[in-house]
Amino acid sequence: MTQMTKIRKILMVIVLIIILVVLTQFNFSDLSFKMNKFNYIAIFSGVCTLLSLYFSNKYEKKKAL
Questions:
Q1: Distances in Å between the alpha carbon of 8 and those of 32, 35, 48?
Q2: Which end of the chain is more exposed for a tag (fewer CB within 10 A), N or C?
Q3: Would you say 12 and 53 are in contact if contact means Cβ atoms under 8 Å apart?
Q4: What's the DSSP call for residue 22?
Q5: pLDDT tens digits, 8-53
Q6: How far apart are CA 56 and CA 18, in angstroms?
Q7: What is the per-residue pLDDT for 23?
Q8: Which pLDDT score is estimated for 40?
């Protein structure tokens, strides 16, 4: 396991924690984009970041074999 793989795993955990924190800030009485714009954008960005980190780790592991 390379150093970058470890860093990516740590970043994945941090991003997951941020997503969970953002989910607690949702206004569940009104789920419109107008009321929760920042939350939707933050969750979408976090999920994209998680996928990017996951697939880059997977690619690096596959390349090492």
A1: 33, 32, 14
A2: C
A3: yes
A4: H
A5: 999 999 999 999 999 998 888 988 999 889 999 999 999 999 999 9
A6: 20
A7: 92
A8: 95
Cα dihedral 40, 45, 51, 54 in deg (nearest 10): -130
Residue spans of the domains in the chain: they are 3-64
Q: Which residue has the tokens 């997951």?
A: 16
Q: Which amino acid is at 54?
A: Y
With bands split at pLDDT 50, 70 and 90, how would you rate the model's confidence at 57? very high
- Minimal CA–CA distance to 41: which of 51, 49, 53? 49
How far apart (Å, rounded) are the C-alpha atoms in residues 65 and 23? 38
CA distance 25 to 4: 32
The pLDDT value recorded for residue 52 is 96
pTM value is 0.83
